[in-house]
Design brief:
The complex is a heterodimer. In chain A, 15% of the residues lie in helices and 47% in strands. By secondary structure, chain A is of the alpha+beta class. The N and C termini of chain A lie far apart (52 Å). Chain B is 47% helix and 12% strand. The chains are: A alpha+beta, B alpha/beta. The interface between A and B is large, with 39 and 35 residues. Chain A: It comes from Hypothenemus hampei.
Chain lengths: 259, 378
């Protein structure tokens, strides 16, 4: 038997909004430690890794490890039926064919939605531990804005990080765009500052399309962390307060020198 | 012609091994294309009002139109194609080739009759049956590929065998052909419909040999014997034994030798002087060029030479050719997107587990539909 209760169902909805553009369907792996999801998008360029810790839930019970494959569009429909202040309880029997979402509103209204589960092929990827050359922490809204702005100029964004700061640039048929952010010296408001932890300068190129999809996670957190290293996928991480994190991995674009 | 009914058999008893995907998932992959097969497709499919495209003096250009546009499409999707042409046909294929010649002669007769009767649909039908890829077609296509900067290889013998050897050596990702015998030659991954027209919206079928063997519960040599039993290009098969019977016999007796010892020869007479050993040898050790000696290079297209080649007496529209070349250059110029699975190792795939009763149900109902889509409702 699996049961997880979250007083703030809106968080789950935000998580869903953040990943459903990249993934059509995905499996949630539930265990004693929490709910996890790892899946690549269909073109195998990016990876979504979601971790929701069991102690972040208001109630959590998982007797047996359980994999729940769901169509995320359908799951979106279920959550569209929920109110902003509702409490959600996710329930499934061991080896069940369906999962139930129960929404309780403050006004004694209770609604139940049952969703059919799917059997999905799952590819598990081993993600090696990486010593990143630079880790950039910045306001998530700022990052979303930069990506959106630069997407108008080209298909890819070059992120270049030095000790002076971080530079985002794009170029295309109509011209070029550059955004430079310097490290903030004023640490009064941590969530508004740009903090760079630099081992060595890095410059990498990424496709706008995927970065734009990642920024759908902006409502989850005020801050975003970008971790970069030469010849390693970019990691974009959003902390989900008290519950866990949502990470996106993105393979860089590489210059073609030899076949 | 490949292996008779193999696709159908797989769809029926091992639907898991055929995955349907989209062309965009293959970016960054090197793919070997069976050139004779794709040229034949182009000659059949690239037509205007039922007739092949030709120059002013009646020379066919359908194969060039196809090669030009569909290669551009592959490159635009970030796929790196290498075309593999057939060499001399293996001796064992003589019988099959003779049969094809007879069929052509019949088609020619039927065509003459239809022409006389003035039946246009019949004329079209038999015209298509008479299509043949000539050496000239192949040579022209090679010339065009060279100008486009796309590599090609001339196989010493069968193209599928050469492709399979290159896949096995890890030189390329997959073989793109419609012929299922690429699997028999041991190509781990076979893609079908890759060079089909975009307008047909045909999903690409990706077939993994490992999954095929696993699902059929056979090893490679048993699989080869199965293909010979079902009917291949290189020898006859036993009359009266179809796909279902073949798989049953192979599962029981493991090899053609054993099968011959056990079956009722009056009911199922094996062909006279049946050279199944020869066919088996051809599948196991085909004549191929060593993949390690092959160098694949995707180069810069030669714009002026291409315009001259296509627009001269072959009457391609210069605007369209230059447009196509622009696309080629763009596909080359931009940096390529790397694949995530190139960085992170796939630790393992958990295939969707199916319940036993469902598996049985699947065998009887809705056979074809089950091959589509990744997810299966429980």
């Amino acid at each position: 038997m699996f049961e997880a209760r979250l007083v703030n169902s809106a968080i789950f909805k935000k998580v869903l909004d953040a990943i459903k553009e990249l993934l059509n369907e995905a499996s949630f792996d539930c265990s004693e430690s929490g709910m996890q999801l790892q899946a690549m998008d269909s073109s195998h360029v990016s990876l979504v890794s979601l971790n929701l810790k069991s102690d972040g839930f208001d109630k959590y019970r998982c007797d047996r490890n359980l994999t729940m494959g769901m169509n995320l569009t359908s799951l979106g429909k279920v959550f569209r039926c929920s109110g902003a202040d509702d409490t959600v309880t996710i329930k499934a029997q061991d080896d069940a064919d369906t999962v139930t979402f129960m929404f309780e509103s403050k006004k004694d209204k209770i609604s139940d939605y049952e969703l059919k589960l799917m059997n999905l092929d799952q590819e598990h990827l081993g993600i090696p531990e990486t010593e990143f050359s630079c880790i950039i922490k910045m306001p998530s809204g700022e990052f979303a804005r930069i990506v959106r702005d630069l997407s108008q100029f080209g298909e890819s964004i070059v992120i270049s990080c030095t000790k002076e700061g971080v530079k985002f640039s794009a170029q295309g048929d109509i011209g070029t765009g550059n955004v430079k952010l310097a490290q903030t010296n004023n640490f009064d408001k941590e969530e508004e500052s740009v903090i760079i932890d630099l081992q060595e300068p890095v410059t990498l190129t990424f496709a706008c399309q995927y970065l734009n999809s990642f920024t759908k996670a902006t409502p989850l957190s005020n801050q975003v962390t970008l971790s970069m290293c030469e010849n390693v996928p970019l990691v974009v991480e959003y902390q989900i307060p008290e519950l866990g994190h949502l990470r996106f991995y993105l393979a860089p674009k590489i210059e073609e020198d030899e076949n | 012609m490949g292996i008779l009914n193999l696709t159908k058999l797989l769809a029926d008893i091992a639907p898991q091994c055929i995955k349907e995907t989209e062309i965009k998932t293959y970016f960054g992959r090197k793919v070997a294309i069976d050139a004779s097969m794709s040229l034949y497709q182009f000659l059949i499919a690239v037509r205007s009002e039922g007739a092949q495209l030709t120059t002013a003096d009646g020379e066919t250009t359908s194969h060039l139109v196809g090669t030009f546009y569909r290669t551009i499409r592959l490159l635009e999707h970030g796929i790196k194609p290498v075309y593999v042409f057939d060499g001399k046909p293996p001796e064992l294929k003589g019988g099959e080739l003779n049969k094809r010649m007879e069929r052509r002669a019949e088609a020619q007769k039927a065509l003459d009759k239809a022409l006389e009767a003035g039946d246009q649909t019949e004329v079209d039908k038999f015209n298509r049956r008479l299509v043949k890829v000539t050496k000239q077609h192949a040579d022209e296509a090679k010339e065009l590929l060279k100008l486009m900067g796309v590599p090609y290889i001339e196989a010493p013998c069968e193209a599928e065998a050469q492709c399979a050897a290159m896949v096995k050596a890890g030189k390329i990702y997959a073989t793109a052909t419609e012929d299922m015998d690429a699997l028999t030659f041991g190509s781990n991954i076979v893609l079908r419909h890759l060079t089909f027209s975009e307008a047909r919206k045909m999903p690409i079928q990706e077939i993994h040999l490992n999954t095929v063997l696993q699902e059929l519960n056979l090893n490679q040599s048993e699989f080869i014997d199965l293909c010979i039993l079902m009917g291949c290009d290189y020898t006859d098969s036993i009359r009266g034994i179809g796909p279902k019977k073949s798989i049953e016999l192979i599962r029981n007796y493991k090899s053609i030798e054993e099968i011959l010892k056990h079956i009722d020869k009056d009911k199922y007479p094996p062909p006279e002087n049946w050279n199944y050993q020869g066919a088996r040898e051809l599948f196991e050790n085909p004549e191929v060029a060593d993949p390690e000696t092959i160098e694949l290079k995707w180069g810069e297209p030669d714009e002026e030479a291409m315009v001259k080649f296509l627009c001269g007496h072959r009457q391609f529209s210069e605007d369209r050719v230059r447009n196509g070349i622009k696309k080629l250059q763009k596909a080359r110029g931009t940096s390529t997107q790397a694949r995530l699975d190139g960085f992170f190792k796939v630790l393992g795939t958990t295939p969707a587990k199916r319940k036993v009763e469902e598996k049985n149900k699947k065998n009887t109902s809705n056979k074809r539909g089950k091959t589509s889509g990744r997810g299966r409702p429980k």
